[in-house]
Amino acid sequence: MAYEKKNGRGNGGGRDRRPGAKPGARAPFRYDGAQRKAREERRDARPENTEKEINENMVVGRNAVRELLASGRDIDKIYVQNGEREGSIIQLIGEASARKIPIAEVDRTKLDKMSAYARHQGIVAFAAEQNYSTVDDMLSLANERGEAPLLVIADGILDPQNLGALIRVAECTGAHGVLIPKRRAVGLTALVGRASAGAIEHLPVARVPNVTGAIEDLKQRGFWIFAADMGGTPYYSSDFSGPVAIVLGSEGEGISRLVREKCDFVTSIPLHGKVQSMNVSTAAAVILAEAARQRDLKKE
């Protein structure tokens, strides 16, 4: 039998009336069938990501971060405890600033949770899964293949699964590189690497200070810039055969107003269903497949 819930204490709030129980003893906590089922459902609904999967690119503590900086490996971001400006940490912050690595000040509680309560000494860094490339690397790759360069610009994608899938699509459809912003966007984390199915090993990914500046630079290099957004020319009527960069927006916000204004054209995917949006990697697959088709025809 299940004990009644009393005084907000859950089952077991009343006296223990079992034979041999001590006078005044409370009844032990017991789950009835419905409670046990609810507990099991909550357990099964927990995310499967382990602490190792979430934090495997994390480097904790001053000495470890110093060695990471000395290694030359690309670093996505450094978190520093609020007010921590003493001793060796000043030098570490200076080195990170010189390399234009994003630095965020957070309270100690967040650093504790982030590092799984390891001895972080006021600093935690996240290294990139793969070193970043440059636009010049992408142009060299296009030149080696004898192709007009085709680049993808990710405008503030926050979800690692989406960025990884986008990189995978770009590599499969023959793009020469992906550009991502340094701030307010996910970097090349371990989760991105896994979602890309290994594509980050084969496709250059560059990190740029901001997307609008990158667009201006590409225009000076002779690129036409297409914003993948609503209200534009259907993608199958757009000309992707020359030096082209295609901008795709974030999951919730899409392409920012300033970025869209910098683009030369807007290309759209006509939608015929009730749902009026696609996942960013799905939209990329549709548009980049058309770009690949046009380029194959040009080779014939």
Walk me through what this model shows.
The chain is an alpha/beta fold. It folds into two domains: 51-127, 2-Layer Sandwich (60s Ribosomal Protein L30, Chain: A); 135-299, Alpha/beta knot (3-Layer(aba) Sandwich). 37% of the residues lie in helices and 18% in strands. It is built from eleven helices and ten strands. Strands 7-6-5-9-8-10 form a six-stranded parallel sheet, with helices on both faces. A four-stranded mixed sheet has the order 1-4-2-3. Helix 4 (88-98) links the parallel strand 2 (75-81) and strand 3. Helix 3 (62-71) packs parallel to helix 4 and helix 7 packs parallel to helix 11. It starts with 32 loop residues before the first helix and ends with a helix.
In short:
The chain is an alpha/beta fold. The protein is 37% helix and 18% strand.
